[in-house]
Every structure is written in C-alpha cells, then in structure tokens.
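Weekly structure sync, notes
Attendees: PL, DS, HV (note-taker this week)

Item 1: STAR4 protein
DS walked through the input record. Source organism listed as Daphoenositta chrysoptera. Sequence as pasted into the shared doc:
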Amino acid sequence: MDPLPNPAPLASKLRNTLIRYHSIGDGEWRVAKKTKDATVWHKPSEEFSGYLYKAQGVVEDITNRIVDHIRPGPYRLDWDSLMTSMDIMETFEENCCVMRYTTAGQLWNIIAPREFVDFSYTTSYEGGLLTCGISLDYGEVRPNFVRGFNHPCGWFCIPLKDSPGHSLLTGYIQTELRGMLPQSAVDTAMSSTLANFYSDLKKALKT
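Item 1 (cont.): predicted structure, written out as tokens:
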C-alpha cells in the first residue's frame, strides 16, 4: 500500500491532464452511444489498453448544484444507482479528499461489484467548475470486491451563456475494471453507464 501523496502537486497535474483531454479535437473521437440526454464517444486511452470515454449533455440547473451532486458528498449515493457505498477517508481541504466507494455488479453480474479508492479535487474552470479524480493504491481491499482503477477522470460543468439555468456537462472517464473480463462487455457497460448517468442526474436535480 502506498502512502498518501502530497495533494497540491497531484491536484495540479490532474487538472492539467483533464484540460488536455478537453482540448482533443472532434476528429479523434468515435461515437459509442447516443441518447436524448447525452452523447458518449471514445478513443484509445494513453494510460492503459482500454478506452478514454467522453460524455456530453446539457443539464437544466446551475453549475454549483450539478457539481455538488457529482463530487464526493451526501448527494451522490442518493441518486447514482451504480454506487453502493461511499466513505471519505481523508480530507485535505474543502475541495480535496480521498474517498473509497463500491459499485454494483453490471451486465447480469458478468462484471462483479468493484471497489475504488480515489483522490478527488474540485476547482473553478472558465466560469464553471471542474471536478476530477484518479485512483490511488491505498487502503486494504475488502473481501468480495475486485479493486478497480480510475485513470485521470473528470467532469467539466460550464454555464450556457445564452441559457442561464442550464449547464453543459462534459465528462472524461477511463476506468480499468480489472479482473478477468471480456473487453466487449466492459465497452458495452461503460457506454450505457455514462448515458444513464445523465438521465439519473437530471431526475435527481428535479426532486
């Protein structure tokens, strides 16, 4: 088990990585799934042998409230059907923490429940917010779970200039589920999970 990293340089590196993903040209992405709530694209990840996913959709609400529902905190467990538990293990400052969470099995349990330990950081970005994270090798792995690993991930939430009260939410996700899994099952699950994330989030914000 690694010791906890110094949060400031890790947060800075993570933010810069996400901003770089956010500047990748449209031509490098291939559409993986499209629903009324979101479009999901993917491209080969630079971090591991799977895909970097990009998801984007307009969400009707103000930026701060949307990000409060996404980042580690009391809201996320209430609405995210994939997440089954969440504990804040360490808090460095208000916008920076280490959390451990577990996810439900997927695809008729072909993908068994997973556990993740992530460093999470939220910061301002172009009039909106960026909340991002990366997995750490920290804490004991609990029985009955496979420990997954999130390579740099994040959500940009930017208010729409011509439509106050609406925000453009763009996510970049690259999750290494680990364990013996067919890649096709992982790709199917990731695309569907990201599309469902938007519809579930929209329902939660209306309540």
